[in-house]
Amino acid sequence: MMKLYGYWRSSASYRVRIALALKGVEAEHIAVNLREGEQKGGAHISRNAQGFVPVLELEDGTQLTQSLAIMDYLDATFREPALMPADAVLRSKILAASLTIASDISPIQNLSVLNYIKAEHGQDGEGAKKWAAHWITQGFTALEKTAQTYDTPYFMTHEPRFFECCLVPQTYNARRFGVDMDQFPKLKEIDALCCEHPAFIKAAPGNQADATP
Amino acid sequence: MMKLYGYWRSSASYRVRIALALKGVEAEHIAVNLREGEQKGGAHISRNAQGFVPVLELEDGTQLTQSLAIMDYLDATFREPALMPADAVLRSKILAASLTIASDISPIQNLSVLNYIKAEHGQDGEGAKKWAAHWITQGFTALEKTAQTYDTPYFMTHEPRFFECCLVPQTYNARRFGVDMDQFPKLKEIDALCCEHPAFIKAAPGNQADATP
User: Does the model's ipTM exceed the 0.90 cut?
Assistant: First the structure.
């Protein structure tokens, strides 16, 4: 069986958990405790030189990193349901929206960046929260504008797919950082629909074995 | 003809210029002056709600955003030479390395983040340079470790492809921010090989019509 090294509250791990659950593919979940810095220990660095989660270990021992690259692998290997449409333009647009989250929001409000602005820029918890909320709000404002131009129940699609694997974990983070989701009615609606879906319920942070109160 | 809205020194624009040149696909290059804030003006926001470059406008007027999503479209549409290998594992690894640059380095040292830490965290030019150098060094350290494990002249490949479209612009930025590339001998070697390649020469910032001294 494949192994997924992750952490219950890591949004990148959460993305891959949703993708696996949408595909109906089982993996053994192995917790890497980010709170205790386990991701920077030798064992995890040997899996991923960046010291990040998630890492997907295939049955032959191959280790894959970066959530979107893991999702790309899963989509190429376990075809149904397809996370990405076949049409090159629609695929590019869905990937662009996913990258708005995975490149332009998530890494900037990541733990390592928050630790840096606390240590080097003298920011306190409030400053870190303001920082995270700023980048989430900026990215979500652009995504909401795009989402509004489509009539589909999900983002350009009729089923939750690649983009929703990114949106739901980022919305979870948005709430943690005090971002008011009422500013983004379409994104909020998509998130609410997803949160009733069995794959998203299975993947939710609170439902993982390593979750703490 | 397709139109590429970009800026000579934007690393995301530079990535797409390389991809187009590798494919031998012509596009009309239209400058969006980031120094003068043109990317935040109404004309550009209507092309990309995020107010970022690049935007690739197709012949039918469809506008694509996010450099990696544009490259995905180009690779699906103009097949030869393929920027990505067919093998799902190798493809995932090359995408992961590309995302290390496009998600974990580039957006954090982007103009809007540098402006924020100057305005909100009281950082001066030196603080901004230290910030950028920190994230570039961290990402390149991990990439160098991975690159060292492959004997191929390029990153896991025998020709410059998807990853090199990301590496060369990031190396250009690394030098701007004073990062010593001697720390990353394999990355430096790949960059040097690329910089002799006609496609990379054509795409280089200094060779664009909007370049300034």
Answer: yes
